Sequence to fold (541 residues):
Amino acid sequence: MKTEKASLLVKGNEAIALGAMAAGCECYFAYPITPQSEIPEMLSRILVEAGGEFVQAESEIAAANMLLGATACGKRAMTSSSSPGISLKQEAISYMAGSQLPAVIVNVCRGGPGLGSIDPSQGDYYQSTRGGGHGDYRTLTLAPASCQEAYDQTIQAFDLAFRYRNPVVVLGDAILGQMKEPIQAWKERAIQDSRGLSWSLSGARGRKPRLLKSLYLSDGALAGHNRLLQEKYQAMRVECDWEAYKTDDAELIIVAFGSMGRISKSAVRQLRERGLPVGLFRPITLFPFPDEPLAKLAEEGKRFLTIENNAGQMVDDVRLAVRRQSDSELYSVLPGILANPTDLLEPIQRVLHT
Amino acid sequence: MYQDVIIAGFGGQGVMLIGNVVAFAAMEQKLRVTFMPVYGVEMRGGTANCTVVISDEEIGSPIIFSPQTSILMNQPSVEKFQSRLEDGGVQLVNASIVDADLLEQDRIRTISVPANELADELGSVKMANMVMLGAWLQATGCLPLKAVQAALGQVFGEHNARLIPLNQKGLERGAAFVASQAERPVL
Fold:
């Protein structure tokens, strides 16, 4: 349960580090990269003081494989990086998904492709929600829009990772990482005892040995394993979360996530003050995607405009969700442009009046 | 209650400190607040800016294109942000180093504060940022001066505690300067 303490004024990155501590994180492995370096900076102090393991690895690839090892032992463990570094981690993430390991991966997204820029971007939506590495797998993906959500959802990420034995991605961006807001901290949890886990590699004395693997060569074994994984991804649908703002009487609904969600919210408020019937739907879980509430809004005759700080990625999921009754327009703010509410007013009105 | 401000100047003028102090004081006043630094491949002597939004309701965007108010510590900041100020907005300009001919007076309201000179009189030109912040507090009335003075202690930390009294004086000096220019808050 939440136990409220005094407010803290922190950057989103610091909120993530504090959230990891509150979730009982025992191990953190990473390699520095802008715009998320406050996460390792803070954890290098507070995680070590709490008796945890902090490793600044020799590379992102090494950090991701250390995460694999720690989670295989049932440890509550995390890595963080930004877009190019997350790309390097994808092989290990695929192996962790295949081996069903409860890893937490934070991506404070920056401009791409390639080294891109250190500016805000939402260009890693596909990478986060489609698996990112090779094979048929999905990672639960959470998209915080405020420092409080960054804190809360990092805690939630650990819980979801263990509930489903699956990697969980927390997808922020440079706005979230660098912005400061007050947060309310929860009471920190004790470090979790991993010895009670039925699957972890904790030493086989007195019990049968366990095997964690992602290689299935015998006849039918891989199909069975994939069936189990797909059933698990279906079961995750109960975790769908979203925010609906003034959608009831809206004609046009803006769909936007993360920082773009709250920038859009300001635009929606300004247009509401002018009497225009617009609302906001902000997915909080990107996988599983909240398609049922969107489909319901489509059944009510709403129209949709997806706004993203990328060339148009989530719009695919919005179109799939509403496809039986409706469609979604797209307004793309390309990475490299810092979005603001004023720039959204005209494009929203243009779609509303067509 | 809603108030936003863009604070801009040279790197080293204490622009980010102004933003941090305002954000902390707003939090202590139980208000919602966002502080958004614009960072990048900046270097000393380059320009720095940040945006602070204060509200008694949930804050949407932490990024504002056309702010209600601005604190502009140098000439490049005026060149960049003056035209973006919303109609009827208030800008506080460091008149010590900004060309007065550039300042608009009709569309917006400009308050010229000789911040470097006022800070010099206090014994350190480094207090120019606190003078400008004090002036902004007086002009907007959005946070009590005492609350911001109290916030300095929290933001500075023990290591820099000896600097707090002079910074508090800087805030008072800026507020007094604006009070002597106008009888009531301009917002």
Remarks:
- The mean pLDDT of chain A is 95.
